[in-house]
Amino acid sequence: MPTLAKDLNETVNPRVAAISPSGIRSFDAHVSKIPGIVKLTIGEPDLNVPEHVKQAAVQSIVENDSHYTSNRGKIELRKAISGYLERTRGVHYDPETEIVATVGATEALAATIFSLINEGDKVIIPTPAFSLYFPLVSLAGGTPVQVDVSEDDFVLTPELLENVLKKEGPAVKAVLLNYPVNPTGREYPREVLEGLAKVIADHHLYVFADEIYSDLVYGVEHTSMATLLPDRTIFISGLSKSHAMTGYRMGYFAGPKEAIDNITKLHSFLVTSITDSTQAAAIEAYTNGDEDPVKARAIYQKRRDYVLKSLNDMGIETVPPQGAFYIFAKIPASYGTDDMQFALDLAKEAQVGVTPGNAFGAGGAGWVRLSYAASDEDLHTAMERMKPFIEKVNAKN
C-alpha cells in the first residue's frame, strides 16, 4: 500500500482542505456500523425504476449505443426534457441551446456554481438546506451566506431577503433556492415566490433553482422560479427522486443561452457527456413517464402521513412536509439544540438512524431529518423503536 511522498503532503488545494466531508454521509457511515440499525438517514427511494424506463436502458445497451454524444446530451433527450418542462412548468427552453444533460443534479449544481460564481461573490442560501450547497460555493471562491429561516416557517420571505441584501451589500451574486426543501419538505407558495422574484430582479441577481423534488408534492401546486424569472434563473433538476433513478445519475440544467453556453464549457471538461444508456432511459422517462411520479407520490404520501402521525403521537414537534420525502422533527427539550447527541443516542439505544439537523446549516440546529423514502417495514420498525426511547427521554425531565 503506497504512502504519499512527504514532500507532497502540503500540495492539496487549500479550498478542498478547508471543507469538511458531507455531514449527511459522514453520520450515515458512522451509524451504519451499528448492528440491526434501521436507517432513515439518506434520501434513497426504496422504489424500483419503472419497468418501461429500465427496458429503454437495456435496449440501448443491446443495440450497442456506446459512443460519445454531444457534450449537451443527445438532442432527442434535450427535446424530451424541453417538452416535459413545457407541459409541467409552462416554460419553454430551446433544446438546441438552453438545456444540458448532466451527471445528476449534483454535477449540474457544481458546473453552474463554478462557472458563474467568482472570487468574493456571495450566494444567499436559506437554511436548513442540503449540505452540498455550502462547499460548492466555497470551492468556487465565493461565500455562502446562510440565512436561518427556521423562525419564518422554514421559508425565505421577500422581507427577510431584502434585509439580508442590505446587510451583505453588492457582493451578492445569486440566491440558491431548493424547494420542495431538503430537509423540511416545505414548498414555497406562489405569492412568496412572486415577492422573491421582485426582490431578486430589483437587485440584479441570479437564481439557482434546485427543483429536483418538484414532481413529489402533496396537495399543493408547485410554481417554478423559471416561470417567474426565466431571464435570471438557472433551472436544475433530474430523475433521481421522481423516478427512483438515483444510481442512473441523470440530471440537467436549463436557462438563458448566454449563461448556458458558459456553464456547458465547464460541464464538457468535467464529464464530456453522460452515459448513453442513462440518456436512453431518460428519453423514455420524460416522454412516456409523466404518470410514474404520480404513482410514487401516492406511496410517499401514505408513508408521510404514517410517520407524521407517529411522531406527533410521541409528542414530537414536526414541520408538516408538503413535498419531497423528508420530515424535519424537533428534538426533545432536554437535549437543548444538541441534535448530534440526540441522533447518536437514538442510533445506539433504539437502533434508528436519522440525520442531525446541524448537517443542514444554521437553521437546522435542534432538529433531525427522517427520510420516509424507506420501506413500509423499515418505517414501522423505526417508529416502534423510537416510541419507548422518546418516552424514556421525556420521563427524565
Automatic annotation (TrEMBL):
GO BP field: amino acid metabolic process
Source taxon at top rank: Bacteria
Lineage: Bacteria, Bacillati, Bacillota, Bacilli, Lactobacillales
Keywords annotated in UniProt: Aminotransferase, Pyridoxal phosphate, Transferase
Family, similarity comment: Belongs to the class-I pyridoxal-phosphate-dependent aminotransferase family.
The protein, known as: Aminotransferase
Domain Aminotransferase class I/classII large: 37-385
Single GO term (MF): transaminase activity
Gene3D superfamilies referenced in this protein's UniProt entry, alphabetically: Aspartate Aminotransferase, domain 1, Type I PLP-dependent aspartate aminotransferase-like (Major domain)
Species name: Limosilactobacillus mucosae DSM 13345
Cofactor(s) it depends on: pyridoxal 5'-phosphate
